[in-house]
Structures are given as C-alpha cells and as structure tokens.
Amino acid sequence: MKLHILGIAGTFMGGIAALARELGHEVEGSDQAVYPPMSTQLETLGIALRQGYVPTNISPDCDEIVVGNALSRGNPAVEQVLDDGRNYISGAQWLAGNVLPGRDTLAVAGTHGKTTTSTILTYLLQAAGREPGFLIGGVAEDFGVSARVGDGRDFVVEADEYDTAFFDKRSKFVHYRPLVAILNNLEFDHADIFPDVAAIQRQFHHLVRTVPRRGRLIVNGEDARLAEVLAMGCWTPVETFGLDPSLFPKAALHETHGDRADQNTAASAAFNWTARLLAEDGSAFVVVHDGVELGEVHWPLLGRHNVMNALAALATVNAVGGDVAAILPSLARFRSVKRRMEVIGRARGITVYDDFAHHPTAIATTLAGLRASVGDARRIIVAMEPRSNSMRLGAHADALAPSLDGADVVVFLHRPELAWDAGKVVVGLRGDGIAAADVDALIAALRERVGDGDHVVFMSNGGFDGAPRRFLAALQD
Q: Domain check: are 193 and 328 in the same one?
C-alpha cells in the first residue's frame, strides 16, 4: 500500500511514517515546517518529504491519506482530499488498526513527561529482553528512532490527550485500548481545544474506561485532578506512585514531623511506588515498592520529575511481569530522548541545552533539576519561544514568570503574531529579562549576556529557527 502522510514532520506522524515503512508500505508525506530531529529520521528512512500542503504534493497513486491533527478544514490539501473522495484516516486510527492488534499496549498519558516516561519504559523493557515496539514523541537516543514495530508482545505508545483529527475530536489516546495505562499528571493545556480542566478530565476518563480488569492503571498519587478522574468510575486495579506523602489523602493517617526517615515511611505507606533520594538533584535514588527497597538507581537524568517518570515506568514493567530489581542497574546507561535537556555542546565554558519544555510546570521542574545539579554559583540563562497553541493564546501567561524563577536571565522570542504582551512577563521575572523580535536579535542578546560557566537552555516545542545550534556556532566562532 502507498501512503501519503499529511503533517509528516510532527513527532507523532513521523513515528507513524517509520512504522508504516517498517511494515513494508511505500510512504511519502508533506508538511509546512520540517526540522530536526524528525526530518533527519525521515530522510534516513528514505521517505520523500514535500514542503507545504499543496494538493499536487499528494501522488495520484496513493491508496490512503493519513491526516495529522494539525490540519483542519480549509487546508488546501484537506479540501482536495475531500473533493476527490479519496480514502483518508487519522494517525491514531491507523496505528490502532495496523500495529496494535494482538499486542499488549502500554499507554503513557499526562500533561507532562509522556515522552521521557515512554522512553524510560521502552528502555527498561528492552533491558528485560522483551523487544518492545514503540511510538514515542521524540527520537530516543538509545534506539536512534522514534518508533519501531518490535518483535515482542509489548507496544509502548505515547498517549496524547490532544484531539485526533479534524473529523474526530476525541483525544488520540481513546483509540489505543491499552492493557496498562500510566496517568502521569493532569493540568490545563491545549487551550485551543479544551475550555477548562474538566473537559480534559472527561477525556482522561474515556481512557480509563478502556483499560480492562486484567490490566493496570499506574497513577500519580500526588495529583488531585487524577484522583477526581478515578472517582468518576474505575474498573481496573490501580497502583500509585509518588514522593510527597502530604499530597496523598491517606498520608493524613500517618504523622510526619519533618524528619526524612518519617517522611520515607509515610511515602511507603501512601504510595505503592516511591523513592528515597540519595542526591537532591534526582540523579541517585532508592526504589521502594510496597515498603520494600528494590535497589538503587544512579543515572544521568536530573530532577524530581524524572524520578517520578522512572517510578511510573518501573511500576509498568512490574505490571507486565518484568523483574524490576534485575533491570535497575541498566538505568545508569540510559540516554533519554533528543530535545529533553539535551546538551548540544559546550564552548567558551558555556553549556548549551535544547529542551522541549513549553508548559509552566514543565519549565519550573526542568529548571529546578538543573539548579540542583549546577548549584547557585552558576548562572542559568533561558531562551524561550512561546510556541504552543496554549502559549500563543496566552493561557499560561500569568504562570510563566513564576515558572522561570530558577533562571537568572530570560530572553523571550516575541514574534509579532504572539497574542499577548511578553513585556508583562518580563517585568514579573525574578532575574533579568528581555524580549527579542526575532531569532537574530535573541542570539545577539544572549551573546551580550553570557559568560564563563553559564548554562544556556533553549526552550521550545518547535524548531526555534535553529536557534540553539546557531547560538552554539556563534560561541564557537
């Protein structure tokens, strides 16, 4: 079969393209913005990429058009597909119909941490010798691709709550019908399609409804909104993970007086899965399951949020019969995923990172992890592109300045189409702030402000016009 994928450069649709190619289909695709790492993956696979949503970019002999959720009515390619009566399908439907039947689907859902948690889970299953398939919203460093069919029974999928397609406004994850679902967290996001948190909770409950009795729900026990989702009805065994017992209702039954040993005891009582930190930056911790210590983890990731991601992944491995204690040492070699605090280089004593964080909570936790690692003596400088639909609409504007408290300097890319005033955010920053009209001005502003020992973090869920590597090149020159 010959497929044309509309929106092929997106992380999800690029993964669909990789799976289709591996299954023997002929694949081509088009997009309006093609940039690494997905463009690199597609080129390596020999998949023809065409720029723009021009109807003539779709070959006449394509049997099926796979439509990404970034395309809507009015798009020239979509209109032509409809007018011509061509066969079309969403990416989530294609995955559910062509890859998932006969597999044990392990779905990773949540506002934050989906990509990292999916990658950790896939890596652990591989370490256990289970040869999982996967579709992750980024290129996993340890596998070199964002998706593969896999030879084992397990298939890990990053389960996005964003809508499926212009013709299917359900969240993508309702198509996957997982055996095990991780519910990592739940906050307001995607302001372009969800009016409030309650609307997102309803979609999460649709996912909960699809998990069978013989399966498992792995749930962040610190998250009150997820507790509300489960209160709508739950028919599947639940295991919780968490670090802070004060955020779990049962923790009120246990007295804690601020002593770490008492807190660890309370956490073990409150959550099925918890951790005892051996390093404040999250780079070392002891995994505890139902009060029993399973072993230590020493790994390259930073931050409390990544410890939580690891607990969710470990609980899922356990749920499908994996030996958690046996695979813990493998995490020392884990290399995460591109664009998740990825160090792209160092020059003149300055470390440059490329990071995908685009929600205030993710921004805050990422910077907290970095601060715990580098200490207070080093400066953290953030270059930010407010690019997500929620960011552009201003849904997170009030929370943005507080989320950047961990930064000493912030440079915003304030494009003309931004619907809110970045200047108000700049005024509210703890550190220095500046708004730049374009990437050239942003790079110039950074160069004026950086010095030896600084850590410069580029944050965007888009291409950022190649700013991270352009800045690094400027330092090297």
A: yes
